[in-house]
Amino acid sequence: MSENNRPRRQRKKVRVTHVIFLAVAVACTIALAWWQWTRFQSGSGTFQNLGYAFQWPLFGAFFVYAYRKFLEYENEMIDAENAADDPEFLYQAPAKRDRDEVTAIDEDFLPSRPTLDVDTYNELNDPRRRRREATTDQPGDNTP
User: Fold this and answer.
1) Where in the sequence is the domain holding 23, given as residue range(s)?
2) CA distance readout (Å), 61 to 7, 22, 30, 39, 115
3) pTM of the model
4) Dihedral through CA 15, CA 21, CA 27, CA 32, nearest 10?
5) Which of 68, 108, 115, 119 is 20 to 30 A from 6 in CA distance terms?
């Protein structure tokens, strides 16, 4: 225990249940890729099936990548909490800015938008409204 009587958290480790779940998820994506590949090779197969056959293994790879990043981020947070002296420590990831980033768009970047006041807008839309009201008995009624 540290000097402020707060227990130190243990780093997250790869667990067997996580690996089994990950293996099942990847196996499912490979099975789905195989299914799409056989659909592509059949007489009614399309290039959409071929695209899915290539896409499903990428999902499986993403599952592995996401799990590894989850462990990395969690362990980074646990290490920061263990190193902090404050019991009310709230972890905030460090900002990674290697260069000066633009945080606002220059006014000259986009074309200028035309501005209309309410009266001009109503004048532009008035003929359509009058035409619609002239074909019906009541204003706003669209039934003939």
Assistant:
1) 1-98
2) 36, 10, 10, 22, 50
3) 0.58
4) -150
5) 68
